Amino acid sequence: MLGAKPPKKAHMNYRTYQEKLKEKKAVKDADKEKEHKGDSLKKKKKKKQKEQERKAKRKKSVPSIWPAGQVGKFRNGTLILQSRDIKKIKSSKVSK
C-alpha cells in the first residue's frame, strides 16, 4: 500500500459519549413534541372527516338482489329464498 496512514480519530470516554447522545435525543424529542402539538388538531379533523366518509360509503343493509343478478343465499349448494326475495322477483320488471 502506498501513502501514509490516516490520523486516528479522537477518542471519547464512553459515559460522556452516552450523555452526549441523550442530550441530542432529548432535543429531537422536544422538537417532535412541538410539531406534534400543532399537527394533532389537524389529524383529529382529518380522522373525523374520514370516518364520516366511510359511514356514508357503507351500506346500511346488504340487499338480497346483488348487481350480478344473484337472488337469495346459497347454503350447502342450495339456493335459499326468503319471502321478501320472492316478492322482489315477482314485482321486478325483468321477470314479467
From TrEMBL:
Query: Annotated region Disordered: where?
Result: 1-69
Pfam family name, one: FSAF1
Q: Report the domain of life of the source organism.
A: Eukaryota
Q: Which InterPro entries match?
A: FSAF1-like (IPR027973), SSU_Processome_Comp (IPR052852)
Specify residue ranges for compositional bias: Basic residues: 1-12, 42-61
* Basic and acidic residues bias: start-end ranges: 17-41
Give the PANTHER family listed for this entry: CHROMOSOME 1 OPEN READING FRAME 131
Q: What is this protein called?
A: Uncharacterized protein C1orf131 homolog
Species for this entry = Geospiza fortis (Medium ground-finch)
